[in-house]
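Thread: Modeling a multi-component assembly for a lab meeting

Hi all, long-time lurker, first post. My supervisor asked me to bring a structural picture of a complex we are working on to next week's group meeting, and I have zero experience with this. I have the sequence lines for every component (291 residues in total). Could someone generate the structure of the whole assembly? Inputs are pasted exactly as I received them:
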Amino acid sequence: MDKLYKIIANSLLLILFFGLLLLPIGSMGIMRLNKTKENNNNVLSTQDNRYIEIKLNKLRTELEEKDKRLIELEKLLYTIETKEATQAITGSR
Amino acid sequence: MFSKLLTKLIDQAIFPAILILTTRILSVILVSHYLDIRFSLDASGFAFANEADYVTVNSYSTFFMIAVLAVGLFYILLKSYVFHESHISPETTARVFSFKLPYFIQTSFDLYSQGTVWLSYSYLLTIVSGILSFYQFLFGWVFITSFVLSILSTVLLIFDIEHEIKIAKESNTQYELDENFDYLEKNEEPEKWISYIK
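Re: Modeling a multi-component assembly
Sure thing. I ran the full set together rather than chain by chain. Output:
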C-alpha cells in the first residue's frame, strides 16, 4: 500500500513537472490572427501603412514642386502679357 | 515518499517558468508598442489583424524568450565552470566568501538539476520555433538562434559533466575496496571476514 502511495505521489509530481515545463512553451499560443478581419481585407498591416505614408510623402513633394513650377510659369506669362500690352500701347501711339 | 530528484526539478523549474512566461507577455506588448502594431486583447489572448504583424511580433517576442534563456544558461554554465563545489579554486572560494556570496558555490546535484530544467526549456522552445518557422509564422533566424543556443549550452554542460566524472574517478581511486582481501592477515580465515562484511 505504501508503495502504491509512493507511485501515485511521484506520478503526480512528474505531471506537475511536465506542466511546469509546458507552461511557458504554451504561452506561444497567446497570440493569434484575427481571421475575419483579414478575409474582408479591411485592415492594413503596419508595413502597408508605412508604404502608403512614403508614397503620400513622395506625391506631396512632387505636387509642391509642380506648384512652384506653375507659379513660375504664371509669373512668366504675366511678364510676357505685360510686355505685349506695353508694346501694343507704344505701337498705337 | 516523494522522489528527491523530482522535488528538486520542480523546485528549479518554477522560477524559469514564471520568468519565460512574463518575458513572453511583456515582449508582445512592448514590441507591438515599439513597432506601432495594433492588437486586440480578449480571453483567448492577443489578436492581430494580419499575418505580417503577427509574424513580426511573434518572432521578436520569441527572440526575447531565447535571450532570457541564454542569460539563464550562461549563469548556470558560469557557476558550473567557475563556482562548482567540486573544482572551485581556493582563491575563488575566498573571494566569493569575502563578497558574502556563498550561495554562488553549488553542488553538482543543484547545478545539473538547474541545467536540465533550463536546457529542457531551450529544447522545447527550439522544437516549437522550428514548427512555427516551418509554417512561416516565425522568422527563420529565430529558430536558428534557438537551435545554436541549445546545442552550444548542451556541449558546454557535457564538458563540465565529463570533468566532474574525471574528478569523481580520481577521488574514488584513493578509496578502492580490498575486494580480493590482499591486505588481510594470512592467518585469518577469509570466509569469516566475508560473512562479517556481508
